[in-house]
């Protein structure tokens, strides 16, 4: 490990104490260096009057024992934490002979920012550049000589964990004690427009500031809004002087940006002089792909193409499997169980065969569709692409004027609307939060997409793909339209952007993808075994009693009661019942359809029955309403929990009921105009 | 540089990729992170953890939008940054 020295001239200040201080950000390897330097000669206590631990030990320098103080790890020297106050108080009051500043070669920028603040208080600094081995492994090349020249400080390269460079570090400290002029740092310079304000404030505080405080440092901290220095200034100055100073500070409240900016520019200039980072091939690939994937036009086009590919493949591969499962597993199972239960009461046979096997079995036959769909989505997710979808969706939401913090939880709703509703906790304003909660159920969640993936091919066969894409588009259009409406009326927040980290693209890992598929299918089967079983039993009971026949059931009576509304959307009472049952969980709509259309002598399974009894216009209206229908029970419960009452869940249900019914009517009437009615 | 970060965030129409912004400003992602941390300490930007408020931290790997969520797939603790009111004012304020 080498010691690098800057060019020299002039002299540095005299120390007040013969202590050496060890300083750096947390996790930079300070404790390792401290233990290596001091061995067992350590004392551990607390800083006076503080709860922060203080470690000091003894090192031998030029044949004499010298105290080494390990200062708390910190990222800056603004009085935001006890550690920060301890470090800056120590540097000002103790003025150690030499500060050993440990910097992280892997993340040098953050270390250098702290150093820029340290240099405002102390100039006799040796920089220990630690983690050189890790930096090398990451392809980061830090030139210690260039760094020393740029900083005006001696720099020693270190690998603290195997004590490499420790001897050179001690030698550098010794050399600096002998020749303090080795340090010639050039700290950050605040730009002119704020420099004048800085000087004026320094002059105001200079007569009152006690030693050892530097008025320029105090002035900087006052402009940064440092709470401790403000308290001191108020204490040191007369009320009139403080009021005048406070007025001036208020007038220059954005000077803090010039002060922070000067430090950041200084860090950047040092890094530019001394650090070379590789442009990884993976990063270049990511950049090239992202030029299309996140482009304002290319991005949505690529998303549409990929979505079409995923759905198309799902339909092509999985539908034959679904039909096979239905014909070879569910229907023979139903026939077998029916024969077994022949001696049992009729209601028991009906419940098990028509309710549970037909209802839950119908749902389970769609597992292949979901398995293929989630595998393809899992591949896209693991490749890193889906994060770009979040970015595109966020842009869309900003385009309709939604507040940045609203867009974030709504994006989470792609997975589950419950997460979306709970995610609105990041919004401080209650009004904006409530409005975001109202919009959250309009984001097409994975459950609704699964229902769409299952039912669209049944209703529309070869046309399933464009219909599915169109319905997702309708969902987003309604979300955008409502968002725009609310933004223009009650939702007048500022729209601001988010800064997010898009992961690098990578080849998907089969194991990760399979885990993703497994987690989804497990959740689906769990629902089928719990919520959907109970719902199927209830739906069967409602469709079987009081009878005789399904047309005289309680469910039929309820459905017939809603017939006038259903007629406008082209929905018969069975489809309305399926919609209502989706309140329990979106997937329950499938089992309900299975039960209601699977009853009767000539039943051939849902996939075969539905297209023959529901015309395309009604099917389209049904799917449109399903995509926009009232939130599921879990989402309503989440809304109640987050809003603390039933009022907002009721508003949400009413709003979405209105939106979905109006959309259903519009879609059905539009489809009739296009000649899609009566084909069933 | 620091005012440029505010201006870019203010002008962006939606989410911005950190790596891309760093490249546009000709700085390293680490430098941008440092700038954001300092702007956050000064109250001009605000760090938000996407998942912490909404999800059980251990469930990120099971989440259907694990990598698609605005957390960027980094799991719990991944920070997103957005402008505060002071940040928006500073970004749109004319130079002195």
TrEMBL record, chain A:
Domain FeoB-type G: 17-179
Main location: membrane
Keyword list, A-Z: Cell membrane, GTP-binding, Ion transport, Iron, Iron transport, Membrane, Nucleotide-binding, Transmembrane, Transmembrane helix, Transport
Localisation per UniProt entry: Cell inner membrane; Cell membrane
A Pfam family reported for this protein in Swiss-Prot or TrEMBL: Gate
Membrane topology classification: Multi-pass membrane protein
Family matches, as InterPro entries: Fe2_transport_prot-B, Fe2_transport_prot_B_C, FeoB_Cyto, FeoB_GTPase, G_FEOB_dom, Gate_dom, P-loop_NTPase
Family, similarity comment: Belongs to the TRAFAC class TrmE-Era-EngA-EngB-Septin-like GTPase superfamily. FeoB GTPase (TC 9.A.8) family.
PANTHER family, A to Z: FE(2+) TRANSPORTER FEOB (PTHR43185:SF1), FERROUS IRON TRANSPORT PROTEIN B (PTHR43185)
Name recorded for this polypeptide: Ferrous iron transport protein B
């Amino acid at each position: 490990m080498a010691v690098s020295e800057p060019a020299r001239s002039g002299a540095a200040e005299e120390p007040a104490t013969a202590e050496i201080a060890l300083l750096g950000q947390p996790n930079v390897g300070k404790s390792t260096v401290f233990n290596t330097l001091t061995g067992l000669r350590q004392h551990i206590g607390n800083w006076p009057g503080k709860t922060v631990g203080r470690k000091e030990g003894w090192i031998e320098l030029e044949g004499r024992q010298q105290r080494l103080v390990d200062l708390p790890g910190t990222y800056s020297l603004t009085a935001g934490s006890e550690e920060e106050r301890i470090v800056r108080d120590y540097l000002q009051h103790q003025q150690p002979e030499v500060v050993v500043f440990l910097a992280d070669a892997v993340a040098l920028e953050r270390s250098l920012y702290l150093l820029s603040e340290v240099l405002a208080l102390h100039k006799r600094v040796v920089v220990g550049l630690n983690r050189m081995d890790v930096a090398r492994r990451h392809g980061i090349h830090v030139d210690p000589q260039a760094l020393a020249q740029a900083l005006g400080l001696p720099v020693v390269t270190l690998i603290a964990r195997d004590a490499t460079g420790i001897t050179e570090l001690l030698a550098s400290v010794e050399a600096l004690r002998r020749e303090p002029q080795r340090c010639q740092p050039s700290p950050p310079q605040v730009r002119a427009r704020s420099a004048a304000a800085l000087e004026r404030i320094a002059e105001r505080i200079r007569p009152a500031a006690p030693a050892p405080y530097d008025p320029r440092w105090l002035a900087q901290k006052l402009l940064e809004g440092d709470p401790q220095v403000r308290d001191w200034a108020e204490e040191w100055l007369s009320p009139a002087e403080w009021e005048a100073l406070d007025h001036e500070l208020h007038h220059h409240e954005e000077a803090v940006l010039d002060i922070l900016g000067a430090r950041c520019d200084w860090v950047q200039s040092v890094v530019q002089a001394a650090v070379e980072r590789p442009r990884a091939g993976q990063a270049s690939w990511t950049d090239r792909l992202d030029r299309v994937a996140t482009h304002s036009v290319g991005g949505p086009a690529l998303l549409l193409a990929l979505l079409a590919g995923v759905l198309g493949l799902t339909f092509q591969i999985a539908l034959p499997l679904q039909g096979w499962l239905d014909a070879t597993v569910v229907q023979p199972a139903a026939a077998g169980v029916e024969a077994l239960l022949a001696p049992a009461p009729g209601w028991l046979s009906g419940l098990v065969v028509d309710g549970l096997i037909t209802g839950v079995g119908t749902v389970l036959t769609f597992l292949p569709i979901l398995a293929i769909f989630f595998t393809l989505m899992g591949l896209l997710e693991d490749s890193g692409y889906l994060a770009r979808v979040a970015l595109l969706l966020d842009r869309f939401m900003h385009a309709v004027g939604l507040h940045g913090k609203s867009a974030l939880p709504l994006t989470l709703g792609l997975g589950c609307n419950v997460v979306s509703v709970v995610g609105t906790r990041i919004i401080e304003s209650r009004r904006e939060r409530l409005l975001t909660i109202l919009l959250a159920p309009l984001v097409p969640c994975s459950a609704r997409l699964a229902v769409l993936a299952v039912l669209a091919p049944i209703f529309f066969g070869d046309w399933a793909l464009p219909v599915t894409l169109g319905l997702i588009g309708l969902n987003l259009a309604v979300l955008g339209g409502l968002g725009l409406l609310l933004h223009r009326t009650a939702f007048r927040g500022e729209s601001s952007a988010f800064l997010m980290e898009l992961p690098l693209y990578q080849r998907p890992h089969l194991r990760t993808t399979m885990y993703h598929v497994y987690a989804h299918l497990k959740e689906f089967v769990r629902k089928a075994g719990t919520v959907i079983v109970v719902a199927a039993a209830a739906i069967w009971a409602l469709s079987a009693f009081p009878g005789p026949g399904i047309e005289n059931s309680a469910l039929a009576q309820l459905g017939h009661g809603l017939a006038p509304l259903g007629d406008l959307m082209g929905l018969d009472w069975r489809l309305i019942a399926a919609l209502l049952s989706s309140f329990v969980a979106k997937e329950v709509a499938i089992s309900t359809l299975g039960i209601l259309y699977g009853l009767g002598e000539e039943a051939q399974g849902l996939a075969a029955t539905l297209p023959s009894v529901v015309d395309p216009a009604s099917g389209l209206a049904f799917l449109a309403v399903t995509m926009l229908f009232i939130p599921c029970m879990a989402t309503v419960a989440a809304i109640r929990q987050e809003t603390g009452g039933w009022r907002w869940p009721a508003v949400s249900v009413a709003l979405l009921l209105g939106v979905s019914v109006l959309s259903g009517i519009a879609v059905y009437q539009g489809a009739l105009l296009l000649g899609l009615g009566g084909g069933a | 540089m620091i005012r440029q970060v505010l201006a870019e965030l203010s002008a962006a129409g939606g989410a911005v990729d950190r790596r891309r912004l760093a490249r546009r400003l000709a700085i390293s992602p680490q430098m941008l992170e440092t700038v954001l941390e300092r702007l956050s300490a000064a109250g001009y930007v605000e760090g938000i953890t996407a998942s912490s408020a909404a999800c059980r931290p251990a469930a990120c790997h099971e989440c259907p939008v694990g990598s698609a969520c605005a957390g960027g797939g980094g799991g719990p603790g991944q920070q997103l940054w957005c402008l505060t009111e002071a940040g928006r004012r500073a970004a749109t304020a004319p130079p002195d």
